[in-house]
Amino acid sequence: MSEVRGARPDEAEPAVQLLTPEGERVEHPDYAFTGDDAMVRDFYAQMALVRRVDAEAIALQRQGELGLWPSSLGQEGAQIGAAYAMRSQDYAFPTYREHGVTITRGIDPLRLLAMFRGVDTGSWDVLEHNTYMYSIIIGTQAVQATGYGMGLERDGLVGSGDPERDAAVVCFFGDGASSQGDISEGLVFAASYNAPVVFFCSNNQWAISEPSERQSRAPLYRRAAGFGFPGVRVDGNDALAVHAVTTAALERARSGNGPTFIEAYTYRMGAHTTSDDPTKYRLADELEHWRARDPLSRVRTYLERSGAADAAFFDAVDADADALATRLRRECLTLPVPSLAQTFDWVYAEPSSELAEQLARHQAYADSFEEAR
Q1: Same domain, 99 and 241
Q2: Which structural domain range is residue 347 located in?
Q3: pTM
Q4: C-alpha angle 343/349/352, rounded to 5°?
């Protein structure tokens, strides 16, 4: 089969699928995965690493070492499939749950832990990684991503035909964010200015405790038609299908043909954040229904059945994941707490005279306080 169907009314909508939950490759008339088994092995390894980071972060939060953690459990297929479709010159605007995207873009997961430990505001070099900071305020990244995409077009970095130069933007957000006005504003401007933006909605079916069908009577990808550009639903637990759909949408954007809306239909198997208790609002049967569609399990099953990976490969992936988790725990616990004076360095790339004056006043106060002690 090449379409995914489920139990909820909204799940009856067909979605692009290239790898079934049973690990079988299938064809789709409009999309094809052009990668080889080496890429599929990379998908699995990266998803496994991201899931291990997620588990370690949850453990750290439960032990009081992180203030909060938003789990990406179950959404690794959507994140890794999309991230691998991006070229180095493409730009990502993630939400606070896109751990797979940021790690794949080369950001040390320790920096993610530092933000949720409260000792860093997100200090990676956005130009080095072409990845913006996590958007904590829901939906704001849509306007920012569209503006950046418009800038790419005005800089002549769209539609030149040069694959090493042409670029696009991917704006990641969840189904809950789709109800925010900023998302619609981003869609309006992207459509009006033909901006090279791929709006990537990870529909994990729960906006905290509200199911997606309560927010929208129609599947989310259909909203694109109202703004005048294509929308497509993809099986978000199928990394191969996500890669194929995102690759096509990015190529369309880079070529100057405008935005695309992708709805990656997936499932949040964990809590919304570590402050949430999903047993209060969803049934265990629903979780088991989606556990059988786990994005890692289906890729592993394919690799095992096809002979593309052996036990040694999976053992090596597990060893790498354990080593990463050990490093993260050790280094997270020793992250330095910044002084108030250091936070002045995080405001502007080039400090203003007003900020310099404020820092001087703060330093004078701090010095006098120390003398009084």
Answers
A1: yes
A2: 342-372
A3: 0.93
A4: 80
